[in-house]
Amino acid sequence: MENTIAQATMTEAEKKAVLTEKITRIVSRIKQFLQLLLRHYPRALTHAEIKQKFNITSESTFVSHFRNANIFIDVQKRYCEQTKQHYYHLGQQFIHEVQQSRYLRTWQ
């Protein structure tokens, strides 16, 4: 059983490769938004960091990019009580799919 779980485990490089493959298929500014999050993966970026690095001045533009990016790839938003900031990072949806696929293959 431990060997099976070990085979389904992924390195950070493998996780980034899965996310990169999914992001490559996207076009426009949404792709750039997701690439920014990918460059900092697995670290989350604050709302202010994303706005500054992506050169977004309008809050409505930020919300639009976040909403549209979520259509293609799961982007998680978390609020930290200690720092009083929102943090954004790429979700685990596609990574979990690959891990599940690997896990199932080991049982076949």
> Roughly what fraction of the amino acids lie in strands?
5-15%
Indicate the mean pLDDT.
Answer: 88
Q: Can you write the helix and strand succession as a string? A: HHHEHHEEH
Oligomer: single chain
Report strand order across the widest sheet: 1-3-2
Unreliable sequence segments? none
Could you describe the largest sheet, including whether it forms a barrel?
Answer: 3 strands, antiparallel
Radius of gyration: 16 Å
Structure description:
This protein is 62% helix and 13% strand. It starts with a helix and ends with a helix. 11% of the residues are buried. The protein has six helices and three strands; from the N terminus they run αααβααββα. A three-stranded antiparallel beta sheet has the order 1-3-2. It is globular. With 108 residues, the chain is of the alpha+beta class.
